[in-house]
User: What shape does this take?
Amino acid sequence: MKAVSQAALIILIFIGLTGCDEKKSAAVQSEVQETEKQFGVKLSEGKLLTTGTDFRNNAIYKKTNTAAWQSAAHGKWFVDVFVSRGILAEYDALKPIPEGGAVIKQGYKIASDAASGVATGPLFVMKKMPKGYDPAFGDWSFALGFPSASQPAKYFLFGEGKDDKVTYCKNCHSDGGGTVGTFGAPKELRAK
Ligand code: HEC
Assistant: This one.
């Protein structure tokens, strides 16, 4: 009798879990569609970027600018730039970034969104990958993320790594000689 009720419980848990997964994925689908409509892009299906929580963690990343600025090179979004702590010296000196380093730029519709930390624009991501990953473009991986409306710490990814959709990022960040670099925040806004 005990074994039967245990089996029934396991089946119930299983049904509960799969039912919950279906509900979740329907919610994700409708969010993807909303984001595509809002930004006029096609997002890679079901891909979620979770950097959303990491770059806000002051122990892992440093915000490099004192105030958001409007970036003409990135769709005129207001932006903040967060740099992983292991590469701060190189980033400040505009030197080649060591493997594993990440630079994250958060976009906002208006400057006051930046002050309150509400992600209302895309996330621009650059990560330095192991040597040989993409030698023509300095072994960087590029990605563009769009904030999820219902889960503020999550982003839907549009293009990642060597994806064609991020070729325009690489071309602009490249000197054409296999060196791809970072530019840094405008001088007057650089945090000490
Ligand atoms: C028109 C040229 C251009 C394009 C296209 C471009 N960038 Fe940039 N990017 C810049 C410049 C210039 C800066 C520094 C000034 C600024 O942010 O406004 C920068 C800064 C950045 C930074 C902060 C690190 C740094 O360089 O200091 C990241 C991260 C970034 N871009 C990612 C991307 C991604 C991802 C894409 C593609 C989705 C992209 N960029 C497309 C020119 C460009």
